[in-house]
Amino acid sequence: NSRGAASLLKDSIPITEFSASGPFEGQDLLRRGFTSVKNELLPSHPLELSEKNFQLNQDKTNFATLRNIQGLHAPLKLQMEFRAVKQVQRLPFLHSSNMALDTLRGNDECIGFEDILNDPSQSEVMGEPHIMMEYKLGLL
């Protein structure tokens, strides 16, 4: 017999008998995974999506204005600088403030919510440095 034990088991036990149906149907965790209520919820306010994408919308508006005023080269140069600055980061176990990106966007003189309540010493990123570096390099 060249078929494996898994195929024999699959052929001998009908899977449909194990699935419950009706108003009290249980969630099949093995096949569908855990349900996430957060993914099924709609935004609670019409401005919630706009606020989540505020920085992206502001960047698009600034790029469009810059293109109209100075030409196509100005937003392209700024986008290349953004990408270069985003790539430069500290080691994965150290907190990175990304100050250069804030300076390019003009947010370096603004005090926001994350400046006061984002204490890096209470961050969940802190961990074993060797393990985190090996994970980032793909060794684990």
Automatic annotation (TrEMBL):
The keyword Membrane does not apply. The keyword rRNA processing does not apply. Transmembrane segments: none annotated. It comes from the Eukaryota. It comes from Aramus guarauna. One of its GO terms (cellular component) is nucleus. InterPro entries: Ump1. GO terms for biological process: proteasome assembly. It holds the Pfam family UMP1. PANTHER family: PROTEASOME MATURATION PROTEIN (PTHR12828:SF3), PROTEASOME MATURATION PROTEIN UMP1 (PTHR12828). Keywords: Chaperone. Belongs to the POMP/UMP1 family. This is POMP protein.
